[in-house]
Amino acid sequence: MYLPGVQSLTPELQAEIAGCDCLLIDGTCWRDDELIQLGLAGKTSREMGHLPIDGPGGSLAQLPPLGVRRTIFVHMNNTNPILLADTPERRIVEDRGMEVAMDGLEVQV
Is the pTM here over 0.90, yes or no? Predict the structure, then answer.
């Protein structure tokens, strides 16, 4: 399933995602207020149509119970710390068994 822009994981969307083999999902921002804190936008990630990865109701909290075999974050903004291999945020993602897409990633279906 490919979901590069997701504002929220509604119950209907969760039902569609549950148990899928591979989910490529919106990883635009790590925190909901990321772009505001950096002075780059006047809206939160959610207000711009992107579910943040971390925080209450973020994808890190909502995805594990859905039993997805492979989760890959895509569509990251250049401010997202998961883009750097040596950040605590990247470690959190990987410790949860999730991945960060990089240029040249190939996924066999």
Answer: yes
